[in-house]
Amino acid sequence: MNKLSNPHIVGVSLILLVYLAIGVLYAVNTPAWQAPDEPAHYNYIKHLAEHRSLPILELGDYDQKYISEVIKRGFPRDMSIDLLKYEAHQPPLYYLLATPIFVVFDGSLLALRLFSLIIGACVILLFAIATNLIFPGNLPITLSVSGFVAFLPQHLAMMSSVNNDSLAELCMILSLWLIMRRTKPWVIGIVVGLAFLAKVTVYVIVVVATVAAVHRIQEREVRPFALLQLLLPSLLIGAAWWLRNILVYGWPDLLGLINHSEVVVGQPRTVDWLAEFGALGLSLRFIQTTFSSFWGQFGWMAVPMSPIVLRLLTILLITVVMGNYMLFRLRVRSSNIDKLYWLVVLSTLSIVIFQYIQYNVEFVQHQGRYLFPALLPFALFYVAGLVGWSRYLENCWPNYSYVWYWLPVLYIPTMVILSVYALYATIIPAFL
Question: Rounded to whole angstroms, how far apart are CA atoms 287 and 292?
């Protein structure tokens, strides 16, 4: 079991404190309902509190014209959010956990936002623990990965709003950590089952867990029976939700997604945009919007950060790519890193990207936040680029090797500044 050293604990604690401080500022200063789908998530919780039953997604729960108008007008008091119920198909775990908060604090939006923020803090802590498992004792890498996750503006905005992403990510990173530390299969299976009840976007974890289990079977670390130990509890937990959906929506709509596609009439479809913009135009929009919204495109995708910031982030990406190349050229290889870790990280990245592209084949959903289940490989990629530069500088000026060793940590204050800038220079001015 990899334990965080005292310096790790101090560093991660400071990151968490700053994350909570900035997160509270996001939760307080972001106007009500100005987060993706927040009213619909809120109404799910409200339904549970008032009716003590799970909501059912029905025709009329999604009115594109009304949604566009209420967003355009900034959610005025004369336009009720009660009509926005299109998240009723979502798995129930986040909403069930949030319902007591809704009841105790009399439906306070801020209280529910802070609830999500606290879950986000648990996510960051698990990122630190998982990174320390991959790179034991390497404080700069652990802190840099944690800082990337904590202060990524779009991620911070999502963690400080009402949605099920926070719990979904918690289930995702907890599962990845348990898989990498070779926890008993039935324990992993239980957590994967909870992921089934959190959000469909993290269903990919069952594939990652299965791939990892097969690898361990091939390496004769565990018996073939381990795969059954993994899948049986996860499928049993998920089956309760899937059976309910079959009873409500009919076979074979286990996830409620078939009904969802029928309800969300008016949502932009890829085939329509393809006809309007062509393959090249649509591809460029897809890449540009995905990149922008991964870093920060707030509100309902209507408030991106300034073009200058996006250009600087593009330069950062190029710099990171160069750093990874130098890391490869310097033959700083993964020979000392467990093959299982590489398998988990790369399979997570590839499956999440595949799922994201597949979703966009039907609907226009160029939202980088849908890539957040793969934040671990993304964070490792960015930090690896910084490590590549530190190793290059160390070779050039070995007398300053200690300074270059800590170079990746400089990324953290940069991310802090970026997250504060995004709030006070982008989000708040947009809604004044």
Answer: 9
| DSSP H or E segment with residue 297 | strand 297-298
Instruction: Judge contact between 213 and 222, C-beta under 8 A.
Output: yes
Rounded CA gap, 240 and 194, in Å?
Answer: 11
Question: Are 381 and 320 in contact, with CB atoms under 8 Å apart?
Answer: yes
d(CA 416, CA 419) in angstroms, rounded, equals 5
Q: Which tokens sit at 332?
A: 């700083």
The per-residue pLDDT for range 215-249, each reduced to its tens digit, is 999 999 999 999 999 999 999 999 999 999 999 99
The predicted-structure confidence for 170-208, as pLDDT tens digits, reads as follows 999 999 999 999 999 999 999 999 999 999 999 999 999
Question: According to the model, what pLDDT value does residue 335 have?
Answer: 54
Domain extents in the chain: 164-265
Is 310 in contact with 295 (CB distance < 8 Å)?
yes
Residues of the chain with pLDDT under 50: 334
Largest alpha-carbon pair distance within the chain? 69
Structure-token pair, residue 299: 């509100």
C-alpha span between 23 and 116 (Å, rounded): 10
Identify the H or E element spanning 9: helix 6-29
Q: Round to whole Å and give the CA distance between 46 and 66.
A: 20
Say which DSSP state 304 is in: E
Q: Which residues pair with 297 in a beta bridge?
A: 304
